[in-house]
Amino acid sequence: MGRAVGRLCASPARGRARRRRVARGGGPAVSRAAAATHLWVDGRPADLALLSTLQTNYGHLSTMQVRGGAVQGFERHVSRLQSANLALFGRALPAARIRSELAAALQAAAIDDATLRVSVGAPDVAAVERGDAVEVVLLVALSPPRTAPTTPQRLQSCRCVRPLAHLKHLATLPLLHARRVARAAGFDDALLVDAADQVTEGALWNIGFVDADGGIVWPEGDALRGVTEGLLRAGLDAAGCAQRVASIPRSACSAFRSAFACNSSGLWPLASVDGRAFAGDPAVPDVLQAILAAVPWDPLGR
Amino acid sequence: MGRAVGRLCASPARGRARRRRVARGGGPAVSRAAAATHLWVDGRPADLALLSTLQTNYGHLSTMQVRGGAVQGFERHVSRLQSANLALFGRALPAARIRSELAAALQAAAIDDATLRVSVGAPDVAAVERGDAVEVVLLVALSPPRTAPTTPQRLQSCRCVRPLAHLKHLATLPLLHARRVARAAGFDDALLVDAADQVTEGALWNIGFVDADGGIVWPEGDALRGVTEGLLRAGLDAAGCAQRVASIPRSACSAFRSAFACNSSGLWPLASVDGRAFAGDPAVPDVLQAILAAVPWDPLGR
Prior knowledge:
The structure is a homodimer of 302-residue chains. Chain A has 8 helices and 16 strands. The first copy, chain A, is an alpha+beta fold. Chain A folds into 2 domains: 34-143, 2-Layer Sandwich (D-amino Acid Aminotransferase, Chain A, domain 1); 148-295, Alpha-Beta Barrel (D-amino Acid Aminotransferase, Chain A, domain 2), CATH 3.20.10. In chain A, the strands form 3 sheets. In chain A, strands 7, 8, 9, 10, 11, 12, 13, 14 and 15 form a 9-stranded mixed beta sheet that branches. In chain A, helix 7 (227-239) crosses helix 8 (286-293). Chain A is globular.
């Protein structure tokens, strides 16, 4: 990070072709998509007894888009689940287990395209409280596929600092509440700022800015560094494109040429913060679209 | 709050008699206690489809102890659920509905003594996100009765500020994590301090201090003002006992004569913060025990 060599650049062809290959050639002729939310544990429908023990909402998660049974940046999702598991449950979570349990859910549900949310919890609540290293359960929720918004989103800022912000944990209520409050006020989504009024992240996504020279600027601060942001940063680095990390006061947002949002649903343009539009037209830089399109889709069931 | 007239005083007899009456006379000859966690919705066991829609953990809760089918300070639990419902779902939650749904769960489960946790969520996740006023579901978890710890608890302080701290919402992970970290380090529980290093609350309970004169001191700051703390404050006021609210730096804790914890499980003594014991012996003031014992037990099924 922090290298700033050259201008933005693009070469999306290879990645797009790979995505088409997975979506068209890898799966069955007719893609089978999730139509409602279903919960799975190790390839079996979750049962009431288990869900009852998981009601304390102590755990972590990752959400990914599945197309043709494959996921972009899957190794990054695995790494995040593993580090969060150590932090919250004090125990290793083997990558092979994550992969096989997710694949088992997709196979049992006979689904190729979905939003897959895997949340990790521990049925032994008392052991969690004692501070023991505890055995976990992977609860897989399969729901309809999601895509990024297409219209530029108007943001309302919200003072909100998440405890343990570096972990993607289950205490998501403040994020959902910030989004709800923003939408009730006529905005599209919420932008979080910390106690010093610095931008940190979006409600359920990361934010990046584009400066006057076309360089990408990521906000400094306590935030979840998402899988898609990680893919974009790595791609910018590999391509030798300009990017940097900087402290961004809420009041300074509109001085940027534009800004964009990203999460597992993709990339989308941002229009304004608290009614103040960015200096240029809302758009996601082509280079970022190209980087994301070039990320391989990793088949889960292999 | 803030009136400081007279010294601590006690007159527990009436309340104790009332509690015995409810526990012995109000219910059946043999009390039936919850033995594991069961989930109920409006007097029926919760089903998988509903639990699947509530997986976003957006909602609020209250936890109470049920003895002989009755709860202390039930009206305060109702008020809290009602104000949280307006804040999170934009809709009134009638008191009569809360009472009847809780009673229906106890009756269907044939249980008199339990820990009752009612969590309120909305199956229509999209409507929540849009910012609409939304219809809610009351999910009642019945688990074994709990009592307060009897040994003085050794606390480890933890820097943690909850977003929307005034609401008892479902984002409880930071609290459970603070407790887990404290226990793994050999302490009994976690004490939360804010960004300015001021004491706010315990992991899942409120804290009060006792000064050299025997007066009660409640910490100022962003915290959930619990039902039991509210009952104690009202009781101290009614009895004309000394209490005040003050900013309490983490480093100043051990200067107090003692400190106590309270939640729906009751009252219990605290021994130390970060290994530094309080100036006097750990004990809960008799006046507080008396006030809590005098609080009527409200039968839910009436």
